[in-house]
Design goal:
Elements lengths: L6 H13 L4 H5 L6 H11 L16 H23 L1 H7 L1 H14 L14 H8 L16 H17 L8 H5 L3 H6 L2 E3 L4 E7 L17 E13 L2 E7 L1 H9 L11 H13 L2 E3 L5
Antiparallel strand pairs: 1-5, 2-3, 3-4
């Protein structure tokens, strides 16, 4: 496309190409009744380039044009989900994954131009629907299916990778504060940290080759995972339940007055690891 075309011209052309098709009269005739055509006509009369010649004249029907746009939109979101849920896509197979992805997109269209966190509810969605494709990945005992935890792990890795950078906490400055000020200071968890409690072993999922092998990673007890970013790479480590629970407390701004005695004892671990940041200005 000619680099001299303005963004406004391209946007108008895009709308016209979907709705009107290649109708030259609609561009120069101000009696067509559409604001878009009138705008294009005004630009053409003013000497701006006639963009109508860029429209594919072989596609006349607005329905066909809209269906092409819808298909492109859907495939863009399918590819977005596929790049986020790498393990799920690999284990379900491309065909099965696409079926579930299209159903999810139909029920959950994107509402943001930022697709990095699109698919927030995909794990729950496929755990409810995946049994339609393969009965082996249905519920084990009770609770969510195994595939739910694999999908949620995929999603949290994506969120972790694109999260804001952690903020440096000046520990020495905090320690030197009066104890009353320390107790009132609000902390919150760093933005690139994500938590997941799972009965499924989630480390080294890429070593799983067959979907049915996931059943062997299921246990009757929960394992507590922390997803974090280190030098541009997302890593996973396990936590003691007490530390996991304490980190969940800092989902919201919290000060030491809100913690119990045991939590206060473990708070220095979170501070030393750099897992917390100030929720506001240092008092």
């Amino acid at each position: 496309m000619n680099s001299h075309y303005s963004l406004k011209q391209c946007q108008q052309l895009f709308l016209q190409s979907i709705i009107e098709g290649d109708n030259s009269d609609s561009i120069v005739n101000e009696n067509t009744g559409t604001a878009n055509s009138q705008a294009l006509a005004a630009e053409n009369l003013s000497g701006a380039p006639n963009l109508s010649r860029l429209i594919n004249s072989n596609i006349k029907s607005p329905d066909i044009r809209i269906s092409i746009y819808k298909n492109n939109y859907q495939m863009a979101l399918v590819n977005c989900l596929k790049s986020t849920f790498l393990n799920v896509s690999r284990l379900l197979g491309e065909s099965n994954f696409k079926i579930l992805a299209l159903k999810y997109i139909e029920a959950n269209p994107s509402v943001s131009e930022d697709l990095n966190q699109y698919g927030k509810g995909f794990a729950k969605f496929i755990s409810n629907r995946a049994v339609e494709i393969n009965e082996e990945i249905g519920d084990i005992n009770k609770g969510d299916s195994v595939i739910f935890y694999v999908a949620q792990a995929d999603y949290l890795k994506q969120c972790c990778y694109y999260a804001e950078n952690n903020q440096l906490l000046l520990i020495n400055a905090f320690i030197n504060m009066p104890i009353e000020t320390q107790m009132e200071t609000l902390f919150i968890r760093q933005p690139s940290l994500y938590l997941l409690a799972s009965p499924v072993e989630l480390r080294e999922l890429d070593a799983i080759k067959e979907l049915n092998d996931l059943a062997y990673r299921y246990s009757n007890s929960m394992v507590y995972y922390l997803f974090f970013r280190n030098e541009g790479k997302v890593q996973i480590r396990t936590l003691e339940k007490s530390l996991y629970d304490l980190l969940t407390v800092f989902d919201l701004p919290t000060n030491m007055n809100a913690l119990n005695e045991h939590q206060l004892e473990e708070l220095p671990i979170l501070l030393r690891e750099g897992w917390l940041k100030l929720a506001g200005a240092m008092l």
